[in-house]
Design goal:
single chain; alpha+beta; Aminopeptidase; 4-stranded antiparallel β-sheet; 5 helices; 33% strand
Length: 153
């Protein structure tokens, strides 16, 4: 597995990975309306592009394709952590999280924080993030509960 920094040219494949992962995994925790709303995010191309390029997005690849991605901004916001649905629980998310932690250390970021979903919460907990609050956000009329997590370095 290789780790590289995401580029503009990666956005279509990242959008597809994002959408397919949400459609495959979210129904275990979320309603059909929540799943569909969440999976539709990449169709807003400008917003998805900003989501990927606003900070540094690391991409895990093998010889054939993108396996997952995770993003971080300069203030320590972990913006994303997605692994292809057929490759979950194979160490890809952990490798990406280790990459984010190394990035934070190398950039003197003292605190990492994120808004975790039901299915990403386990990864954050594995890396010693703790829940400090929850929030409910609305996306085009559909509400989602998210866990606000953080970790000091």
């Amino acid at each position: 597995m290789d780790i590289q920094i995401g580029q503009e040219s990666d956005i279509p494949e990242l959008a597809n990975l994002y959408q397919q992962t949400v459609l495959a995994i979210a129904p275990q925790w979320y309603s059909p309306a929540q799943t569909q709303r969440w999976a539709s995010f990449p169709s807003d191309i400008a917003s998805f592009r900003q989501f990927i390029l606003q900070g540094t997005t690391f991409i895990a690849t093998d010889e054939m394709e993108i396996l997952g991605f995770a993003g971080i901004t300069e203030d320590g916001h972990v913006t994303s952590a997605y692994v292809r649905s057929d490759r979950i629980h194979q160490g890809i998310g952990s490798t990406l999280m280790e990459t984010l932690l190394d990035y934070a250390k190398n950039h003197n970021i003292q605190r990492l924080y994120a808004e975790a979903s039901e299915f990403s919460l386990g990864l954050f907990k594995k890396f010693s993030f703790h829940i400090y609050d929850t929030e409910v956000v609305e996306r085009q009329g559909v509400q989602f509960k998210r866990y606000l997590v953080e970790r000091s370095l």
